[in-house]
């Protein structure tokens, strides 16, 4: 079989959505998104991560250029994070249900 250039090959069980179509996807991320919150955000030196209905989570705090500042595994429903300096950080929350990331602003 000769495939012309700029041809997209799609597996047979794939659904192709036409352009200008709105697709609503509800999955475990919408549930995970509602299972934790960060406050205050913007923060002033520290913030509290509230892990609602999460039995265990790994929290990773990154700089925006991808350097890992620290990681911890917790079963506590509330965790206070000390932020090292002013700036924007990325908090990654890893649970058995999935991974979610949020920005934290520290003033």
What is this structure, in a nutshell?
With 107 residues, the protein is mainly β. Helices cover 6% and strands 44% of the residues.
Polypeptide structure, described:
- Strand 6 and strand 7 (98-106) form a beta hairpin.
- The longest helix has 6 residues, at 28-33.
- The strands form two sheets. Strands 4-3-6-7 form a four-stranded antiparallel beta sheet.
- The N and C termini lie far apart (59 Å).
- The mean pLDDT is 80.
- It has one helix at residues 28-33, and strands at 36-39, 46-51, 57-63, 68-74, 78-82, 87-95, 98-106.
- The protein is mainly β.
- Helix content is 6%, strand content 44%.
Write the layout of secondary structure elements.
Elements: H1 28-33, E1 36-39, E2 46-51, E3 57-63, E4 68-74, E5 78-82, E6 87-95, E7 98-106
Antiparallel strand pairs: 1-2, 2-5, 3-4, 3-6, 6-7
Q: Keywords for this structure?
A:
107 residues, 1 helix
Sketch the major β-sheet: 4 strands, antiparallel
Low-confidence stretches: none
Q: Into which percentage range does the β-strand content fall?
A: 35-45%
Order the strands across the largest sheet as they lie in space: 4-3-6-7
Count of DSSP H/I helices: 1
Q: Count of DSSP E strands?
A: 7
Approximate shape: extended
Multimeric organization: single chain
Average pLDDT, rounded to a whole number, is 80
In terms of structural class, how would the helical and strand content be classed?
mainly beta
């Amino acid at each position: 079989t000769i495939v012309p250039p700029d041809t997209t090959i799609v597996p047979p069980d794939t659904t192709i959505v036409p352009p200008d179509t709105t697709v609503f996807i509800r999955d475990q991320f919408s549930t995970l998104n509602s299972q934790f919150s960060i406050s205050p955000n913007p923060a002033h030196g520290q913030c509290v991560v509230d892990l609602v209905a999460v039995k265990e989570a790994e929290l990773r705090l990154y700089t925006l250029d991808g350097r890992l500042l620290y990681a911890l595994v917790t079963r506590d429903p509330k965790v206070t994070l000390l932020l090292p300096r002013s700036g924007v950080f990325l908090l990654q929350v890893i649970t058995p249900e999935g991974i979610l990331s949020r920005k934290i602003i520290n003033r």
